[in-house]
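Input record (one chain):
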Amino acid sequence: MHRVLTLFLLLGLSATASAVEPPLDLYQKLLKENVKTEHHHGTSLSWVNYTKLRKNPDFARLLQQLGDFSPGQLEGDKERLAFYINTYNILAIKTVVDNWPVESIKDAGSFLKSVWKKKAGIIGGREISLHEIEHEILRPMGDPRIHMAIVCASISCPDLRTEPYTADKLNEQLDDQVEKFLSNPQKGLMVEGNKARTSKIFDWFEKDFKSTYGSVKAFISRYSNLSADAELRPNLPYNWSVNGQ
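The corresponding structure, as predicted from the sequence alone:
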């Protein structure tokens, strides 16, 4: 009887552990097949094949998995961060796919409601917008590295990673995203003598970087060779053209 009870408890714990994060195999497959590093609009970036995704039944299956998964199963901050970063990126892709062809994700919005505030998809049976995920869930969690991980389907956004974010690799993945973004002078950081031009992301979300790192400059210096006397100007052009075809 004791052995049976022990086995039952172990099986229960195993089932709970496997349910912490949603299945990611399908998302991994779609990223590998449809995201390639290419050169467009004067910069190297992750280029997304939206045309192919639109016709791929696996993408519909991925959205169904997302809709069926309950975020209440997530057990820690890393699990939640990874899940909602993946979810934002999947639903941003969905927004473009649903409105394809578009020149910019912004075209999926309207005069009365921006694309960010439109319902983008379903999580655990509930409709949600990109605005809710970014501003009401991710930003309050206090890790500004998310701004280098969530991808709004645009040329000047950070690159879409070709692997899902996972709790066990999250810190490594986020650090890598920041370093890659800042190493691209057309996207993140362009140093010109003692002046440095940065992405407008650092202006739009300055509060997030200041609250965690003290300043935007302190954050950037942590991940680059920015000189102490460099003057930052968040004025790199931001290209909202869609990051794929």
